[in-house]
Specification:
The chain is α/β, with parallel strands linked by helices. It has eight helices and eight strands. The strands form two sheets. Strands 2-1-5-6-7-8 form a six-stranded parallel sheet, with helices on both faces. The protein has a two-stranded antiparallel sheet with strand order 3-4. The two termini are 14 Å apart.
Length: 217
């Protein structure tokens, strides 16, 4: 499978590549991972300065720039795709979810087959953004928006408000093909810090891949 990978705010493609190294190694050579930097320069996230020199986000918190975000991602996928799956951490996961809502409604990304979200939140509604309204999707209002297989991986030691946000994203996704794994690592991607949490995350991701492959047969 070919994956598009979106990093967290205040980091970079290089850092997300490092964060996912153990996961990618375990998934094996049948998978290709393409990492892309956001276009919005930001201050570094905690610890990022020790690893990289440039830091980015995807969301500008400006209606005009955020109106361009989805179109920019469409252009990137058209030039660098196709992609089978999408993987994102924190803000990158939220942008990935926005792309999937757009894909489900309009087929703009060629029919992505699965997604992996690390510590992500519900996206803003791409249709409303185009009309100049920034409004986040809400499972209580919008119901299930995504029916492809998804993995939702977040920290069970996060604050209650943060956990509610992660749960809300998972509730936008079909629970018949949804995997959830909770780890003890804080706002991070499971990797070398904990073999137990890495194994749990891999189980969730592998189930999602299996479901996605079954859906294409």
């Amino acid at each position: 499978m070919r994956w598009l990978c979106l990093h967290g705010r205040g980091t970079s493609a290089q850092i997300f590549e490092m964060q996912t190294a153990r996961i990618r190694e375990a998934l094996g050579r049948d998978h290709e991972f393409v990492f892309v930097n956001g276009t919005v320069p930001t201050d570094p996230d905690v610890g990022a300065e020790a690893i990289a020199d440039e830091f980015f986000g995807y969301v500008a918190h400006s209606v005009e720039q955020d109106q361009d975000l989805c179109d920019n991602m469409v252009e990137f996928v058209e030039s660098q795709g196709p992609f089978d799956g999408i993987m994102g951490f924190s803000e990158g996961g939220t942008v990935a979810a926005m792309m999937l809502v757009e894909d489900a409604r309009h087929g703009s990304f060629g029919g992505l087959k699965c997604a992996v979200f690390f510590c992500a939140a519900p996206p803003f509604d791409p249709d409303l953004v185009r009309s100049g309204v920034i409004k986040y999707t809400d499972p209580d209002v919008d119901g299930v928006l995504l029916t492809i297989p998804t993995a939702h991986i977040w920290s069970q030691i996060a604050g209650a408000d943060e956990i509610k946000v992660h749960q809300a994203l998972s509730q936008l996704c079909d629970d018949q093909v949804r995997e959830i794994f909770l780890h003890d690592l804080g706002h991070d991607v499971p990797g070398s810090k904990s073999d137990k949490d890495l194994a749990g995350a891999l189980r969730a991701i592998e189930h999602v891949i299996e479901n996605a492959m079954d859906g294409t047969r």
